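Lesson 9: reading folded outputs for more than one chain in a single document. The general rule is that every protein is listed as its sequence immediately followed by its C-alpha cells, and records are never interleaved. Here is the first one.
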Amino acid sequence: MEMCLVGSQWGAAGPRAALYALPAPAAAARPSSLSAVPAVRPPRPSPSRSMAGLGGGLAAFGRCTHAVVRALPESLCRQALRSVAGPEVDFARAEREYQLYVGVLRGKLGLQVLELPADESLPDCVFVEDVAVVCEETALLTRPGAPSRRKEVEAMKRALESLNLNIVEMVDENATLDGGDVLFTGREFFVGLSRRTNQRGAEILADTFKDYAVSTVPVHDSLHLKSFCSMAGPNLIAIGSSEAAQKALKTMQQMSDHRYDKLTVPDDAAANCIYLNVPSKGHVLLHRAPEEFPDSAKVFEKLKDHMLIPIAATELAKVDGSLTCCSVLINKASE
C-alpha cells in the first residue's frame, strides 16, 4: 500500500471564485468573473465555518444526516448509457446490490434516506450523484452532459427543496456538469473536464461555492474524475494505479497548495469509495467488494482506523456505475 504525503506542496490557489486550468491556447474572453490564471489565495473560511462538503468542520469531514437515492428502472438493463459495449445488466442482481447499498446507509449507518421512485423513461436515473452537488446548506442542480439525463434533475430538485436547502439551478445552455466529475476534499473542489463536464459548468460551480478554491483536471480514458479517485478519509485521496489516474493526481498536486495523503489501489474502479464520519462508529468506508477487486480490498484492509463495509456494484458497473454514483449525501444542521 502506498500511503504517504504527495510529492511537494501543491501550487497556490487563486482568486476567490476563480477557476484554474492547465494552460490553453488563447481564446476570446468569456463573460465571466473567473480567471484561469492563479493570483492571490482566496480567504480561508474561519474555524467556525464548515469546511466539509457534508458540514461540521474539517475535523468532522464526512458527517452526514441524509442520503438521496433513486430506485432502479428496469429500462436500465437495455437503455442505460455505457462507455463500452458489454454484457447486459442482470436486473435482479442489480436490485439486490442496490438494496444492500441502501440498507447500509439506512440501517447500518442510521442515515435518513429519501428514496425517489424509478422512472422508466430515465434509464440512468439511479445515478443521482450526477444531478446535484451539495456543500453545506447549498445544492447546485447540474446540467448533465448527456441530454437524455437532464430531466432527472426535476425529481432531485423536489427532494432537496423538501430538505430546505438553498437551491441553485444551472440554466446556462453552454454549461454541462456531472456530479461524478466533482471531488470535494473538505478544503477545495477538483472538477474533471470530461466528456460530460465542460469549463463553463466548472465555472458555475465555482460561482456557487465561492468560499472554496476550484481547480479543473482534464479527464482522459474514463467517464468521470471519480471513476478513478475519491476521498477515503479526511485529507486522504484514494487513487487508481493507471497512467491516466496518476496523471490526474499530478495535475491536482500542481493546482493545490495543500498536501494530501494518498492511498493507491491497483484497480481504478475500486478507488471510487464512500467515506463517512458517523458519530457512533467513527471513520466508515464503503468500498468495492473483495470478490470484485481482491487486490484493492487488501489495500483498504490496512486502514485500521476505519470501519470497512464492502459493497458489490457488479451490475451497475456494466453501465459505468460506481458507489458514489448512487447517492447524494447531505449533512443537515439541527433545526
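And here is the second record, again sequence then C-alpha cells.
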Amino acid sequence: MHFAYPPRKTSNPPLYLPRSSNLPRFRRSRLQLIALAGLALITFIYLVTWASHGHGAYSQHRPSGKPPVVLVTVLDEVKYSKAYIDAVKENRIQYAERHGYQTFFPKVGDYDLKNAPASWTTVVAMRHALTKFPDCNYVWHLDQNSFVMNPRLKIEDHVMKSSRLEKLMIKDHPVVPPDSIIKTFSHLKGQDVDFVLTQDKEGLSSGSYVLRNGDWAKFFLETWFDPLYRSYNFQKAETHALEHIVQWHPTILAKLALVNQRTINSYSKASKGAEYQDGDIAIRFVDCQAQNSIACEVESQKFAQKWRTAFKNS
C-alpha cells in the first residue's frame, strides 16, 4: 500500500497571514528576561547564605580580645617531677592573672603525632589554642623549661604593638644565620606582622614566639605541621622544619618579624645565644635539655626565687 506524501510547507505564505516569527521573538525575549531574573535571585540567595556561614570577607570572625593573650606551655609530666611542673604552671598562671590572660597547658601525648618526635606537640598545641580561645588576640608559646621573669611587661605592648615592632624588627637579615640568601623583608610594616620570632647562635629559636590570632596563623601552623615535613626526619624536628618553610614560602616570610633575642627569648647561659639580663621578660634553660630532666630542674632553681620576688614586688 502506498501512502500519499505529506504536503510540502510553502516558503511563500500568503500576504494576508501574520508573520509567524513575531510571536516567538517576543516570547524568547520574555523568557530570557525571566531566566536572568531567576539566575540573579539564585545568586543573591547563595551569596547571602555563603556569607552567613562565615565565608564572606566581611563576616570573618574578628577576635574580641578576651583574653588578650593565651600563654601556651606544653608539659612533659613523664620525664619531669611534679614539683618542677607545678612551679612552671605557677609561674605562668601568676603572670597571666596579672594581665587578664589565659594559660593553656597541653601535655606530651595529648595528640596523635603519627610517630613524629614529641617536640612536634608544641605546633599542634598552638593550633589547639586558637580553637579553644577564638577571641584571643595573640598566642605566646613559651617552652616548659623557662620562667617569665618580668611581670610588668605585656605581650601586646612589649612585642606586638605596631609602633614597637617598627623599632624591634630586624630587616633585610638572613633568616638562618649566618649566610642564608633568604632575608627578612626590608619593607615590612609593624601592622602587617603576624609572627614574631628570634634567632640564637645556631638558627631560628622556636622555644618562644608570638602569633597574632587569625586565618593566617591557622594556615601557618597547619603548613608547619604538614605530614611531609614531619616525615623529613630533620635533626631538630619542628625547628628545622620551620627554617625550611620560612625560607621557601614567601607567604610565611611576608608575615614574619625577627626581633632581638632578649625581647622574648633570653637564655640562662651565653653558650648558645643572648644571655638573660635583669628586666628581660623571660628566661629559658636551653643547655639542660641536652642532658636530662634533673639538670633542667637544678638550673631552674637558680631563678625560681628571683621570679617570685619580682612578682611580689611589682
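What the second record shows: The first strand starts at residue 69 and ends at 72.
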